[in-house]
Amino acid sequence: MQENDFKVLELGDIDDKIKYCIDVILKEAKLEDSMIKQAFYPMLSAYTSNPLNVKVEAPSGEGKNWVVGKMSDLFPKDDVMNLAVITDKAIFHRAGKTVVKNSNNGEYEDIEGLLKEYDSRIEDVEAELAETRDTATKSALKANKQAVEQEKADLKKNVMKLIDLSHRILLYLDTPRTGLINSLMSMLAHDSYETEYEYADSTANGIKAKSNVLRGWPAFFYAQALDTSHYKRGAEANRRFIKINPNMAKEKYKAAARLIVEKWGTPDFMYQATVVSNAEKDKARQIIREIRDNLLSILMR
User: Fold this and answer.
1) In whole angstroms, what is the distance from residue 95 CA to residue 286 CA?
2) Which one of 25, 53, 68, 180 has the lowest number of neighbouring Cβ atoms within 10 Å?
3) In the chain, where are the structural domains located?
4) How far is 171 from 54, CA to CA, in rounded Å?
5) pTM score, two decimals?
6) In this structure, how many other beta carbons lie within 10 angstroms of the beta carbon of residue 287?
7) Hey, how many other C-beta atoms are within 10 angstroms of the C-beta on 65?
């Protein structure tokens, strides 16, 4: 066991562990106690069955992105999705695994395994064809092979892409386009755990309708500087978010200015010695990973 692991275990109570993480974030987000607590727990909610959505509201330059960024940096990188300027439906086209929908139980099955089964069946038929000399048997085997190949082709026609957003933290650190929020409205409301999205796909053979599947509810964060209360679905969208604000007191600005001087005006070893060290951040990351694993293990019971 490494020294850092031992220290994490020695912290004991979960409240002490969470306090340690918050204290580490505060070292680089001065006087933001309230906002950090209001955002930290919703980030952890990504690992529960009912993640929370957070909107950070404040004028430009007040540190909205800074606080959320420092916090998300401590969470497992694979769990955090930073969204820059994206189109309204871009999230529906992210990387995912190829699946088909089972017509009997409605479950989405990995197509790779199914295709291997068909290939195995075709190979078996071909092996039998190579061994037999009987004309009638050969004819039956060829018909069987064609039938399996047709099933395989039909399977490919119904292929979909499954994009799993469960237990993810989505960060959109800018005022989003209204179309983006509108397209995610159902997901933000947790209406359905799996949602199919149909779109037109242009191919050499013309335009075809295809479907992607969004699975899961992420913890969704976005920062907003503009007033969007006049938007047509503004009130509806607001009901889906917890609204938080950064500290805008003069003392915070002074502390932030001093931090900037320490960050960029001193060597890194001095910054780590006087503000926050990499070891402290790594320890906080271990704690968060431990909390995540415990929460997910509870969900699996």
Assistant:
1) 28
2) 180
3) 1-31+249-301, 97-160
4) 10
5) 0.77
6) 21
7) 15
